[in-house]
Amino acid sequence: MIIEFDPLMTWLIVLGALVVLVAVFFLGRRTGAQRALSRVRQYAHPANLSDGEVDDSARYRAALIVNPTKTDVRRLASTAEAICRFEGWNPPLVIETTVDDSGEGATVRALDEGVDVVIAAGGDGTIRAVASALAGTSTPMGIVPLGTGNLLARNIDLVLDKTEWALRIALWGRNREIDVGTAKIAEDGDTHIFTVMTGLGFDAAVMADTSDELKSRLGWLAYVEAGSRKLAGKPSQVKVTFDDDYRISARVRSVLGGNCGRLQGGIQLLPQAVIDDGMLDVLIVSPKNLGQWLGVLASIAGRRVSRGLHTNTRKCQKVVIEAGEELDVQLDGDPLGQSSYLAMEVMPSALTVRVPTVEQRKQIRAEAWPV
Ligand SMILES: [Mg+2]
Asked: Which family does it belong to (predicted)?
């Protein structure tokens, strides 16, 4: 039997088939989208899973303090906004640092606004400025590491090159209390906060002599370049007083007070330093010539700094260094000028930082976040 279709019937069949194909295509896409959504929900925080209307004032809010010389602020702000929206937070308060305010004033403003976390996006200098305003408060600090050294981030095991993860850790990470150090370069002078290490002498002279331009081109190698030019300097006579009691007098190149001691490339400058033990680790470096510098470098490489060649360390809560001449001083890598006096003290558990939870660590390792 031969079935004859009239042209109208043929067109209707073709049209029907097209409708079915399009429907199958879109249903398939919806299923794909649902699959992606379920993956996203699997890694999301429970707080953003409620579908109902949430009062904005009940949502958390973050402040993002950004150093505009280290990144494209608009791009970082829009990434932060997207992540905050997705995680059920209010849009972040974004403030750029300036030459006059490297982050401390911005953080005070953010605290006045009542934010739940202040995220420092920049190098160790920006982090130090934000920490200066947060120390002694209960507001936690998140970190998006964008600097050359990123030493605090290294010492608390943050992810260094994943901005999205750094932001998520800032929002939903675990609170960890760490010590901070205070430093004064005059007995009645201002008190400065540091989170990693402060030093007088060689290390500070190197920091003061490393150009920002070379830092952005060579990274940490810029310090090596400046360091090699400073190696041949003369030692200085210093008197070091630990905890108002124990005193030593020596000819040294550098005295460092550290809250934590891990540097780039896994180098441990202060192997015994613990970031939350309520103690500072003081390192005295005293080589007299280039040959002895090799001993210092070998001691650092071999993590034998405490009983190393031409190095000595001691734990204390407070240290005062009086030098016979004006020497460079640096705080977390920022030059602070010259002084013949440096007093450092530890403020135990003064700063709360957001670090990855066990679950976040697993997800980062597995690269599980659906991007
Ligand atoms: Mg310590």
From this structure: Belongs to the diacylglycerol/lipid kinase family.
